[in-house]
Amino acid sequence: MSIISDTGKYILLMKRVFVLPDRWKMFFRQFPKELEKLGLQSLPIVIIISVFIGAIMTIQTKLNTTNPLLPSYSTGLVTRDTLLLEFSSTIMCLILAGKVGSNIASEIGTMRITEQIDALEIMGVNSANYLILPKITAFVVMMPFLVIFSMALGLIGGYFVGVFTNIITTADYLMGIQYAFIPYYVFYSIVKSLAFAFIISSVAAFYGYYSYGGALDVGKSSTNAVVNGSILILFFNLLITNLMLN
């Protein structure tokens, strides 16, 4: 029963969020700040994780595919397709659900328990639209760029393995990442990331907006936002993959 009730509240909240802003000036003042906070400030974690995961995938793939019947370029091929199809969209979004989701939920939740949202409502402001719309739009706009950065940096991380170790040669790796490249995989990954960005930001905003109580309840809201956002990402990952790759 709680799931049905929460789903209804979520839909009604999104209905309030996605209306034309009362004052576009306030929206465009807030939008760049959210781009920086949710997007640009997520770049360091994207860079670090992508480079290391690209390197680790290259090493593990090479060490576990030592069959002489496999072509030498297979390591680069597997690394590239894994990054494009799954890691840079799904796994990266699961990681960002923890960082960005908890940030949004705790910020809006703190505003709720300190009665700032109630003050906005008393002044006749659509608080859901004013607070949540810039966050959702900014994160959805930034996510494709983060995903493309992640893809590129993951491939660079794999290249470093060829440069600094004797596990694989750079020539074999470069041949692998170029062999039978399918541009549709990049499009598929970006479409997934847009859906996941919306899920992360809207679910986190929902749990933050309906926080009640004290500081402890804000922590619970952040936890619920991350957990439920991650579950929804996995579910929609399965759904989108079936629709787009079948």
Q: Briefly, what is this?
A:
The chain is mainly α and 246 residues long.
Question: Keywords, please?
Answer:
single chain, 246 residues, mainly alpha, 83% helix, elongated
Account of the protein in words:
The chain has one domain (23-245). The protein is 83% helix and 0% strand. The protein has helices at 2-17, 24-39, 43-64, 74-113, 116-122, 127-164, 170-178, 184-209, 215-245. The chain is elongated, with a radius of gyration of 21 Å.
Uncertain segments are none
Helix content: over 70%
Task: Categorize the overall geometry.
Answer: elongated
Summarize the biggest pleated sheet.
none
What is the percentage of strand-forming residues? under 5%
Report the count of strand segments.
Answer: 0
Helix tally? 9
Total of domains: 1
> Which value, in Å, is the CA radius of gyration?
21 Å
Order of helices and strands: HHHHHHHHH
Structural class: mainly alpha
Cα separation of the termini:
34 Å
- Overall average pLDDT: 90
